[in-house]
Amino acid sequence: xxxxxxxxxxxxxxxxxxxxxxxxxxxxxxxxxxxxxxxxxxxxxxxxxxxxxxxxxxxxxxxxxxxxxxxxxxxxxxxxxxxxxxxxxxxxxxxxxxxxxxxxxxxxxxxxxxxxxxxxxxx
Amino acid sequence: xxxxxxxxxxxxxxxxxxxxxxxxxxxxxxxxxxxxxxxxxxxxxxxxxxxxxxxxxxxxxxxxxxxxxxxxxxxxxxxxxxxxxxxxxxxxxxxxxxxxxxxxxxxxxxxxxxxxxxxxxxxxxxxxxxxxxxxxxxxxxxxxxxxxxxxxxxxxxxxxxxx
Lengths: 123, 163
Hints:
heterodimer; A: alpha+beta; 2 domains; 7-stranded antiparallel β-sheet; two-stranded antiparallel sheet; 4 helices; 9 strands; B: mainly alpha; Potassium Channel Kv1.1, Chain A; 8 helices; about 55% helix; SKP1-like (chain B); ubl conjugation pathway (chain B)
């Protein structure tokens, strides 16, 4: 079904949830647990900040879902600065569900990042 | 296949509005539908493509020629696809995705559907219904309930225009 292909390629969950309002059949597709899982696994932005420190120096990793398992993400593409991160130092604060993260770059310099967990993206 | 003559084989494709197009077999077989016809030996005369109109087929052939001229370099192919799709409007993309599906061209199908998703991303529900020709089958009460459940997703949406 072609519509399902478009929907599976939407990068933000926000758009997906909004499009539940389009009609009943779209709501059914978008609510289907298999669709949801596939969307999450295929999403480039399938990333979660973890709060449990693993055996990794210099911060907490981002995790991504792959084949129903969580794995540490190698690199997190950050749109705003066009650079890559693979871990964050701390969650500094939270406001309206947006997290302010302190980030260590690959060159060990520190910076800050606003992270939207519901779209898995920096803003 | 005319391997013995040494000249590239050309196929003739016919759109559903009776336009004829010549295309190199090597480019046309990007379509699995056409490749199967060639392999089954039924691509000798004119190949009728009943689900594709002339305007869309011309575009698809431009893509076939362009992408098959690029050597096996995924980066270059990707940038060709991005450029090829960059100036296409929604109606053209919608026609192309149906054509790519019918012609069984997975690379074009993937690229066009990703582009359509990208276009849809910030669009309103009204825009989507209009562009996809979808009738709203919710009662006003049901629609309000679904909307209420995901209220935050309606923030920052583009105004309901035709673009």
